Amino acid sequence: MARRKKVYEGKAKILYEGPEPGTLVQYFKDDATAGNGAKKDVIDGKGVLNNRLSEFFMTGLQSIGIPTHFIRRLNMREQLIRHVEIIPLEVIVRNFAAGSMAKRLGMEEGTVLPRPIVEFSYKNDELGDPLVPEEYIIAFGWATQQDLDDIVSLALRVNDFLSGVMHGVGIKLVDFKIEVGRIWENDYPRLVVADEISPDSCRLWDVETGTKLDKDVFRRDLGSLSDAYTEVARRLGVLPSNVTHRPKPTLIN
Ligand code: 5GP
């Protein structure tokens, strides 16, 4: 088979040229990093789980009319996606205080926020993805005011969907990060959810016990990351077949 052209390699994923113009193949690695690469490990099977989970969330979003870059899953570690212009922002939605917000404001983790809060970080590893106000984003031309209005409503719709799906399986969606891409259709730009949605980019706590089921398990040395992600996948019914044997559904005539 001809070698594929690598377009980009990040900390957790690789992008290859896709089979048709305007497409890419997104490969999920097993690498885990935290603290902007300061802590690194390889977690067996993480890429397989994140590929499945991201497929599950992206197809769910599409089923309620939220556009995403996802086309289809190709195999255990790869999915076909649309080639988008990534807006250089991390769009973070928070329902409860945690992580950098809790630290910055001296809040107790888990404090319920008065309403979902959307914030933006400038995507730049060397700078550690600094939080930026809308004023910077518009002044530096990373996105227009119209884009930002659209991104906020997109992010809040994603939040409603993900919070509901997670609540249904006993998981609290504390916060998450998405990336947004721009695609051009007949000279008109359209914003779509891009990158991935997985426990790497969300904070997920068990509703009953508060147990963390996300990348904080790795960031804070709280136990097995693959056990946590497997639990999320198990609850959502999206475990890959070689990880465990799901009972077959009973067919009723
Ligand atoms: P915080 O700003 O509290 O560190 O993160 C807020 C949310 O965004 C968390 O769910 C976290 O996992 C996610 N997040 C923030 N930055 C990144 C990043 O660089 N990569 C990934 N995968 N997720 C991030």
Automatic annotation (TrEMBL):
Listed PROSITE patterns: SAICAR_SYNTHETASE_1
Record-annotated membrane-spanning stretches: none
A GO-annotated cellular component: cytosol
GO molecular function: ATP binding; phosphoribosylaminoimidazolesuccinocarboxamide synthase activity
Swiss-Prot/TrEMBL catalytic activity: 5-amino-1-(5-phospho-D-ribosyl)imidazole-4-carboxylate + L-aspartate + ATP = (2S)-2-[5-amino-1-(5-phospho-beta-D-ribosyl)imidazole-4-carboxamido]succinate + ADP + phosphate + 2 H(+)
Keyword Lyase recorded: no
Annotated metabolic or biological route of this protein: Purine metabolism; IMP biosynthesis via de novo pathway; 5-amino-1-(5-phospho-D-ribosyl)imidazole-4-carboxamide from 5-amino-1-(5-phospho-D-ribosyl)imidazole-4-carboxylate: step 1/2
Name listed for the protein in its UniProt record: Phosphoribosylaminoimidazole-succinocarboxamide synthase
Species this protein is from: Pseudoroseicyclus tamaricis
